[in-house]
Every structure is written in structure tokens, then in C-alpha cells.
């Protein structure tokens, strides 16, 4: 993880009780509200499992609104996966987890045995911890199927020491830091070996530690904590290097460098004595960028989020089909919250064949053994001869001197067997075969 600095939450606080409403344990982060069509079609899916502490969970200070969903680095990483094909995420970030707790948890996962919550780590403030403890057999299966495993851990190992940096003599700070780094190294290496035993070939990315407090807040102690963060990076590098192979990569995600010198804009600093340090939304994006660049060599953003001002909300959402953002000759139309495309543009985008029947005012589209018939004005589409209800029917739209047939993109893509996911944060629909 990255710095979670303190044993952050007292058990039973309102924020943590409500956090259980915000993030369901072990659920794909493309939940029902943000997914136009689910997984489970038998197609290849790039599977991501996120393990670790509150940074993995996507926690931000003051997250008490039950209508707020965490949007951390893991959720962003899922979106990046959609650019490359069908992707799914299972997030097991545990609030307050230390490297010793991660070792205990991965040991139980490796064995496929259910353990009590206290067997993971005593006094964890996460209200979901009992549920997480019960899920170890399921997580073992998910890890075995994973393509990518991400981990943030270690901040809770040193939080109490870092908060005392102003009080301790330099020699005492260094001695205690070395002791904690030694424990961190031992615990994390053993935890990674547990994961590797379950998942022999998945890529494992371990984040290093960042120092979140800005220089203006720390004064002369800034250099001390920056030096400590550099030593954490070296410790993480030594662990990953000892386990890394070409066939089974274990790599350090160097997040710390992205925060150095710009901590104030990337980190929430809440509470007297700097009690609660967590990334801002921009900070979580920085972390996601590091992971995505390691996995895919890039971090992509859609054109929809670049638009600001009064017209932004009414503008068409971005549409990404098979990794390519659409730029069609005929502008997409946003109607009742759904994107509609002209018939020819849809056929070109998904690589399907089709024809228009003037007598029935219907379009027939064929792709991969599926046939979808969409009729102007009908609240049903036919998928291989079977009616399926849709929210908003196809319509004719005057474009210049022509009437263009506009079809509901998500309904058609789903009918053709495509995977359709919608990110409300990015205002982007991702469509993958």
C-alpha cells in the first residue's frame, strides 16, 4: 500500500460502519448500476484481484455517504482493462491491514481454509472483516484464475513511527525504521510466496510506499521521511527481485516517485497531528497510472471527460469499441441516457453485417452466429428470434436531406453477445467482443 499512517479508524465509527454499504466484499467493481451487460458469456476475461489495505479499498477521509462508491486505483485499473477487452475486478482491500495481516490472510487463502477475523489481524477496524475472513476459499479460486494481482501494503506498519518523527532522536528513528523494514520485507516476501503458490503465472504488482506530507508541513523532517520512503522502495524492490521471473512476473509499482514534491495536491491530510492521510482522487489516478503503465504500457482517458462547461452533461458519452474510441461520420445521439448510433456506423464499429428493410422499418444485424432485428419505434429487439425488451426504441433522425436509422448501441451490442460496461466517472461505454 502506500501510507495509511495511523491505525486510522476506531472500530465502530460512523464512517466505517457506512463504508460497508459502499463496497461489497468480493464483488466485481463493475456493479449493476454501472454495467449495461454482465460477464459470464464464456469469452476470455482479463481478471484482476486487488489485495491490501485501505488504499486498495479506495478509502477517502469522510467517506460516510452511503450513496458514495469508492473510486480508487483498483476501479480505475478495471476501466483500463476494458480498453483492452473483457475485464473483471475483485477487490479485497482491508482497512487497517498490516503486512503481518496480509501474511496471515494469504496463508489462509493458500490453504483454502476459513479463519476467524482475529486470525487475520487483531482489532481490524474494517466492518467487513468477518465477511472477508469467510471468503478465503472463494478468493483462492479467484487468485488461481487471475491474470493480474495488485497489492498495496506497508503504510500501517510504519504509521505510528512516522507520526513520532518530530519526537524521536535521529538514531532512535533509524533503529525503529530498520526494525519495521525488516519485518515488512519478511512478511511481504512470505505473503507473495503464498500468492504464487495459488497463482503460478499471474503478474503480481506490489506498490512501494509514498511519503504524503508536504514539505511545508514537515519542515526539516521532510527529508527524513523522504529518505524513509526511499528505503521502503528499496525494500519492495529487493522482495520483488527475489521472486520475479519472466514466466511469472513480480514487479514493484513505483508509486512513491509520482507523489514526491507534489504531496499536497495528491493527498488528503485530515485531523490534528496529521492523523488521516489518504490519496485524493487525483492521487488515486496517479497510483492507477503506475499499475496500468506496467501492465499495458499506457493509461488512457476518453474524450468525454475532457469536455467541461454547461454543455458537458448533455454531450454524447465516449464509446470505445474493441479498444478504439469511436469518431463516427454521423454524431452519436444521447437519448434517455443512452447512446444511439447510425446503422452504418454501428456496423463499421463492431464489424457486423446488416441490411435495412423499408417495408418493416427494421434493421437486421448479423455477427458471430447471432442475428438481431431492431424495428423503428419498437420496445423489443429480436435476438435469434426471441424478443428482448429495451428501454428506448430505435428511431429515424433527419441528417441533412437524409433520414438516418439510429439504433440503441448498448442493446444491440448486448444482443450480439458483446460485453458492455459503462463508467459513470469517465462517461464512457466500453464494448468488447
UniProtKB/TrEMBL annotation:
Residues 50-285 form the SGNH hydrolase-type esterase domain. Pfam families: Cu_amine_oxidN1, Lipase_GDSL_2. GO terms for molecular function: phosphatidylcholine lysophospholipase activity. SUPFAM superfamilies: Copper amine oxidase, domain N (SSF55383), SGNH hydrolase (SSF52266). It comes from the Bacteria. PANTHER family: SGNH HYDROLASE-TYPE ESTERASE DOMAIN-CONTAINING PROTEIN (PTHR30383:SF5), THIOESTERASE 1/PROTEASE 1/LYSOPHOSPHOLIPASE L1 (PTHR30383). Residues 320-431 form the Copper amine oxidase-like N-terminal domain. InterPro entries: Cu_amine_oxidase-like_N, Ester_Hydrolysis_Enzymes, Mao_N_sf, SGNH_hydro, SGNH_hydro_sf. It comes from Paenibacillus typhae. Residues 1-32 form the signal peptide. The keyword Signal applies. Gene3D superfamilies: Copper amine oxidase-like, N-terminal domain, SGNH hydrolase. Keywords: Signal. This is Lysophospholipase L1.
